[in-house]
Amino acid sequence: MTAIHLQDTTTLHNGVKMPWFGLGVFKVEEGPELVNAVKTAIQHGYRSIDTAAIYQNEEGVGQGIREGIEAAGIRREELFVTSKVWNSDLGYESTLKAYETSLEKLGLEYLDLYLIHWPVEGKYKGAWKALETLYKEGRVKSIGVSNFQIHHLEDVMKDAEINPMINQVEYHPRLTQKELQSFCREQGIQLEAWSPLMQGELLDNEVLAEIAKKYNKSTAQVILRWDLQNGVVTIPKSTKEHRIAENASVFDFELTKDEMEQIDSLNQNLRVGPDPDNFDF
């Protein structure tokens, strides 16, 4: 079932409800622009905010959350906040410590979702054990991974007590990740898209522009709608108020089966980010 409004949620395999749509803050530096973007998104009805330790902006995100909650007159419990442990902190003890640091910077008492950012060989299993500990202690509502391929997921699940609830990966019409999505679906792991707009590279694509014209929508809106109709959680990044509002205006039209297939056929297995099987950071 496709989300029909901005605050619609998908239920993760542990029963936690996660919004289908959220705000990403990758590459948004600390400062008023960041605080304002988070606050604005919350005021516009967004209920999911995604950051990471490596973005070095958790403090500003925390401030934006506090200001947004106050401005929108909602409670912290109504928000879904995600952060991620960076590669240099992977390992049992260091991941536990990294979690505390993220909480402190964000000024929060818990996270709704904590992810392992990249599958660093030999290190992600210890980190997963730490995430399980945090989860069992009730310090975090749900746990997951990011940038994991099928073989990474199989490796983690072989020894896991708790399977990942989310796998956040690069996902857009040039990288449709069909096999990975099928695998995640079978395992009850919700797929989530980062860089859904391919960092702007798809915005003048003719096929997408043609579909957008039909619905009087932008190319970005068509892509984000495609994510949702594919059952993929999506977190587009923007700092501009009109774009934050526009990105979320994707619940008043529906792509046909043919249009979905047309967009699927743009796949070239093309990444704008690093390859999870071949990265060195």
TrEMBL record:
UniProt keyword Oxidoreductase present: yes
Record site feature (Lowers pKa of active site Tyr), residues: 84
Cited InterPro entries: AKR, AKR5G, Aldo/ket_reductase_CS, NAD(P)_OxRdtase_dom_sf, NADP_OxRdtase_dom
Signal peptide: none
Gene3D superfamilies the UniProt entry points to: NADP-dependent oxidoreductase domain (3.20.20.100)
Residues at which substrate binds: 117
Top-level taxonomic group: Bacteria
Keyword annotations of the record: Oxidoreductase
Matching PROSITE patterns: ALDOKETO_REDUCTASE_1, ALDOKETO_REDUCTASE_2, ALDOKETO_REDUCTASE_3
Domain named NADP-dependent oxidoreductase: residues: 32-267
Catalytic residues (positions): 55
GO molecular function: oxidoreductase activity
Membrane-spanning parts: none
Family note: Belongs to the aldo/keto reductase family.
Protein name as annotated: Aldo/keto reductase
Organism: Peribacillus deserti
